[in-house]
């Protein structure tokens, strides 16, 4: 190996095999990104059904990419070879150099997952959560080797969005910071590194500010939500307005993120907006249920 090759190898993540926990919208696409980038990837869920659904969705997504000339058939087939779905979480995690958890946004669930992972993974395995809001120190508390814990936060749709935020806690080791950041870059993502943890990180805090203002304008009756979206799209050139974005991300996700944030800060300002709570309780969860702020045929 050349000196440069050696240096690159030394600066790399050292990851060959990755496990992604949770076959929902985020987890399935994160696993696809990893498989496309050349990693042996396990996509794990507790039941076969969400795994089968994820495979169907990724299949049609990949087929469309091939049709449109965005990827070659060979690249896509090679990614399928590397992507294994399984319900045997512990076996997958034990064979992996990094685990990215993308399960439901619930602190207790995540703490249980990481406590269990801690006992099956090698101490060198990076433990990362894709949580949007739960800071890594809350999860590191249940992990014996807390230095390997961090957040790697992807954006929806993960196959498309370039950004990954790396969020360390005060005890995250230098080695984990370096390797997790290198892994995100090896996935072809642009890395945004936080120097310290804060709920919401950077991008969601920016988004929150916009969403809060949009909901306040709507609640006050200043403008209807499609007009607020139109302003964001056409005056600010955002690809989507804040209401369209809530439907894409999922009203349930927005609701649970607010609940999680409120649980961490105790600030009533952080509670879900009443309009969000109403949609959530009505089961209008956005694109995935065919109805949220908007209706989808
Ligand atoms: N999955 C994968 N690829 C998708 C996709 C999805 N759900 N939706 C769209 N795409 C890709 C496809 O390649 C599509 O091309 P195709 O239709 O030929 O297959 C291409 O994007 C363009 O899609 P559309 O023509 O439907 O629409 P747009 O041009 O508006 O692009 C978008 C769609 C990329 C989603 C764009 O609207 C966008 O960037 N929206 C903002 C997304 C955003 O802000 N995400 C961050 C959310 S916050 C978050 O995730 C944090 C979390 O913690 C909550």
From TrEMBL:
Annotated pathway: Lipid metabolism; butanoate metabolism
Residue ranges of domain 3-hydroxyacyl-CoA dehydrogenase C-terminal in the record: 200-296
Organism superkingdom: Bacteria
Record keywords: Oxidoreductase
SUPFAM superfamilies for the chain: 6-phosphogluconate dehydrogenase C-terminal domain-like, NAD(P)-binding Rossmann-fold domains
Domain spans labelled 3-hydroxyacyl-CoA dehydrogenase NAD binding: 18-195
Residue stretches spanning the membrane: none
Secretion signal, residue range per the UniProt entry: none
Family per similarity comment: Belongs to the 3-hydroxyacyl-CoA dehydrogenase family.
Protein name: 3-hydroxyacyl-CoA dehydrogenase family protein
Taxon lineage: Bacteria, Bacillati, Actinomycetota, Actinomycetes, Micrococcales
